[in-house]
């Protein structure tokens, strides 16, 4: 990474701090308020933080300008110490032009989000502010009987304790949970299945770097909008990639990753971490053998393209930091150590 593009972390929180609960993309709390309200109760109980909603947090169909105004207001309020996205969506790219970089730079705050929030994380990265990839109050705090252990551990590390955590496999995974409008969404997880071991590729060596990347469909949008970092600033980073609940086929993922290679990004990074992909939805649930085949197809597609452009990159595929649950929250712009020899991943939350 270029010395001219140093990244710094916002101060950690203490119980009693106020945190903004925002919907920079889709206002899921307005669609399923019961899940949202349980998420807020759990957030208070688990962290002692004070959630603060804004005008568009529950407003379905809010304009990009209005959503940006809430983000700017949160960054401009010195009593707000972190921002948590309720969920992703598909049009956050239209919000970014309305954001005030001066407000964020003057008072950096911890930001947590994933999926379409790749837009905001990349924007903060461009300003030299570390964020966290993962976390959705509507997906990971509100539904089900409890907050998953690995999610809560990484949430606390991101917000409070800092330090290092080894990212480990929780051993089970679901692609989606119960319909939020059904009462059982508040008490039951989705159909979970045992997970397979992560796949490692590349040399058996240890690499360490700051992370950049996100949802591969959104990275594609960033490229077309000319909002990607420079190759100089990406030199020596760890690329994190994951695919969305829209379940793109392996051939699409291969094309996106190949395009990153053609742009020079794959050659610039020292490591690549790819999330376990969702391969089913409420509408279509393939048999277990087919789900395994679809995951393997995406795994093989990514590894083949990364190694084509950078045979020295350490690669790990299957890490649960994306659209499946349980979900780890991982640093975005913070450091991750990828050990191809010990087959271990360690994330810094400092």
End-to-end CA span = 18 Å
Give the overall form: globular
| Order of adjacent strands in the largest pleated sheet | 6-16-15-10-11-12-13-9
How many β-strand runs?
16
Strand content: 15-25%
Low-confidence stretches: none
C-alpha-based Rg, rounded: 19 Å
Molecular structure report:
The protein is of the alpha/beta class. Helix content is 34%, strand content 20%. It contains twelve helices and 16 strands. It has an eight-stranded mixed β-sheet with strand order 6-16-15-10-11-12-13-9. A six-stranded mixed β-sheet has the order 2-1-3-4-5-14, sandwiched between helices. α4 (101-106) links the parallel β3 and β4. It is globular and about 50 Å long. The chain starts with 17 loop residues before the first strand and ends with a strand.
In short:
The protein is α/β, with parallel strands linked by helices and 350 residues long. It is built from twelve helices and 16 strands.
Which key terms come to mind for this protein?
350 residues, alpha/beta, eight-stranded mixed sheet, six-stranded mixed sheet, 12 helices, 16 strands, 20% strand, globular
What's the arrangement of secondary structure elements?
Layout: E1 18-22, H1 28-31, H2 33-47, E2 50-53, H3 64-76, E3 80-85, H4 101-106, E4 110-113, H5 118-126, E5 131-133, H6 137-141, H7 149-161, E6 164-166, E7 172-173, E8 193-194, E9 199-201, E10 206-215, H8 216-224, H9 231-234, E11 238-242, H10 250-263, H11 265-268, E12 271-275, H12 288-309, E13 314-319, E14 330-332, E15 335-339, E16 344-348
Parallel strand pairs: 1-2, 1-3, 3-4, 4-5, 10-11, 11-12, 12-13
Antiparallel strand pairs: 5-14, 6-16, 7-8, 9-13, 10-15, 15-16
Helix pairs in contact: 10-12
């Amino acid at each position: 990474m270029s010395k001219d593009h140093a990244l710094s972390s916002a101060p950690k929180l203490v119980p009693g701090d106020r945190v903004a609960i925002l919907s920079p993309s889709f206002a899921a709390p307005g669609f399923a308020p019961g899940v949202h309200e349980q998420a807020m109760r759990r957030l208070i109980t688990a962290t002692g933080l004070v959630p603060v909603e804004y005008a568009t947090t529950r407003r379905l169909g809010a304009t990009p300008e209005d959503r940006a105004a809430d983000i700017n207001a949160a960054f401009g309020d010195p009593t707000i110490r972190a921002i948590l996205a309720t969920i992703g969506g598909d049009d956050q790219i239209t919000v970014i032009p309305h954001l005030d970089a001066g407000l964020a730079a003057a008072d950096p705050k911890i930001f947590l989000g994933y999926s379409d929030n790749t837009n905001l994380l990349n924007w903060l990265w461009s300003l030299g502010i570390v964020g966290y990839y993962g976390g959705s109050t509507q997906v990971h705090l509100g539904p089900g009987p409890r907050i998953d252990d690995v999610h809560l551990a990484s949430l606390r590390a991101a917000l409070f304790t800092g330090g290092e955590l080894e990212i480990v496999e929780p051993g089970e995974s679901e692609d989606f949970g119960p319909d939020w409008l059904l009462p059982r969404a508040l008490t039951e997880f989705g159909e979970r299945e045992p997970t397979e071991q992560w796949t490692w590729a590349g040399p058996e060596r240890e690499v360490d770097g700051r992370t950049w990347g996100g949802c591969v469909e959104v990275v594609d949008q960033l490229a077309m909008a000319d909002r990607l970092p420079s190759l100089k600033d990406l030199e020596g980073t760890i690329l994190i990639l994951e695919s969305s609940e829209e379940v793109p086929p392996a051939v699409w993922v291969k094309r996106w990753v190949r395009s990153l290679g053609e742009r020079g990004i794959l050659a610039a990074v020292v490591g690549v971490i790819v999330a376990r992909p969702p391969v089913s939805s409420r509408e279509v649930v393939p048999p277990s053998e087919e789900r395994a085949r679809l995951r393997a197809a995406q795994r093989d597609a990514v590894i083949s393209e990364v190694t084509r452009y950078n045979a020295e990159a350490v690669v790990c595929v299957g890490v649960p930091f994306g659209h499946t649950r349980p979900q780890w929250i991982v640093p975005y712009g913070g450091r991750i150590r990828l050990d191809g020899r010990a087959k271990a991943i360690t994330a810094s939350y400092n």
